[in-house]
Amino acid sequence: MSFVTDPYSSLQFVELSHVWGHGVPSYPGQADVKMHRAVKFAEHGVLAWRCNTVLHTGTHMNAPINMVQRGADLADIPVDRFFGNGVVLDIPKGAYEVITAADLEKATPAVREGDVVVIVTGWHKFYSDSLEYFGQSPGLSKDAAEWLVAKKVRMVAVDTQQVDHPLATSLGPHRGGPTMKRLAREYQHATGLDPKQEHGEWYIAHKTLASAGIPTIEQVGGDVNVLLGKRATFVAAPWKLQKGDACPVRFVAMIDPSGQCRIGSGNN
């Protein structure tokens, strides 16, 4: 499935989220999502699930407080950050590569001030509990994050497992890590580069965006490929979670091929 068309407005909706549920891929070192039926149809005639989860699972939003002390939590992010026009940038990247400011500058359509920016490297197709998805994915460089901040973007979404390169996170040899024990060695073997020299700053891209108050969405998926290189309107509303650093979100894009749809005035 690619588009779902609303019969009244003719708006076309595009799913940008991975399916979420029991046992979805989780970061190395973190517990899996666990779900069980607390109330069952066979027993009670209704269904209700009980869930135990880390909030950074599946397609999820990060609040600035995730990386910045006293930054905005999910409940404090202004609601206008969750809805707006933007662009899906097609920036293909291979294993261990970096998304730079130069990549963003030359991508089309051009990023405008206030945009929601969705960066698609092609890595969403590897979404799974795998060494490739979590350990070899590309990530944003510091200068790419600074470029996005300078553009005053509304929100940044990526189809990779994190905003940063995995060697710039606790998956590699940074504080709390490495939670992927082989990662630094395999990176050096594959690239010939020193991970500490190339990625010596811990979560630098994520922290740069968070310090500017920009929420991020990681692990974009669904039918995002149908919007590559296009502009659209996006919505992703997180839980109104006090002190919340992250939560799963349903991320959706909408386009209007007719150009006729307008949002209602709110009057009778």
From TrEMBL:
GO molecular function, one term: arylformamidase activity
One of the protein's GO biological processes: L-tryptophan catabolic process to kynurenine
Coiled coil: none
Name used for this protein in its record: Kynurenine formamidase
Source organism (scientific name): Propionivibrio dicarboxylicus
